[in-house]
Design the sequence.
């Protein structure tokens, strides 16, 4: 004879769910970071941490230098520098013999930072597609180019006139551009 055992025992009365106490850790000092919260007499208030020893990242402030026309401004150049202090090992390639440093004295590369609206406009350099404006806003990376003169074309979505102009890239510098594409 085969016996059947139920998986769960049925309840005779419904299960009661108590409301959760979200304030259970608020006054317990073991779960509170003393550097970020202070008591102001009524409650604990979040305070920003103070940084010592290193500069805090401050966003770049655009300073216009020239008006290009058609709503675009050229700003003052900023240093273009980065370094490879630790060579990243790649299978099949040797690491460099010496550390590679690219700084303001570099004779090879420069950059362009584009702060142009709409930020989903396509960017073409010397007739070749480079990406969209959002990719080269200067917060993550500039549009890195070989030093010299290049033709830059920015084409927005339907309803915006394309913007075509020549750019002279200075070695070791990032030249910011800011403005709006003009509607038709």
Sequence:
């Amino acid at each position: 004879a085969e016996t059947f055992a139920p998986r769960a025992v049925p309840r005779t009365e419904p299960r009661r769910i108590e409301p959760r106490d979200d304030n259970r850790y608020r006054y317990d000092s073991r779960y509170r970071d003393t550097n970020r919260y202070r008591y102001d007499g009524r409650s604990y208030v979040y305070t920003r941490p103070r940084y010592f020893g290193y500069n805090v990242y401050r966003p770049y402030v655009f300073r216009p230098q020239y008006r290009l026309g058609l709503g675009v401004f050229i700003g003052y150049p900023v240093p273009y520098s980065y370094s490879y202090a630790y060579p990243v090992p790649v299978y099949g390639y040797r690491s460099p013999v010496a550390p590679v440093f690219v700084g303001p004295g570099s004779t090879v590369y420069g950059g362009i930072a584009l702060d142009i609206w709409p930020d989903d406009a396509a960017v073409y350099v010397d007739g070749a597609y480079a990406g969209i404006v959002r990719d080269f806003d200067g917060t993550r990376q500039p549009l890195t180019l070989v030093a010299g003169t290049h033709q830059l074309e920015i084409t927005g979505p339907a309803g915006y006139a394309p913007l075509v102009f020549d750019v002279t890239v200075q070695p070791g510098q990032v030249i910011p551009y800011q403005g709006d594409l003009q509607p038709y």
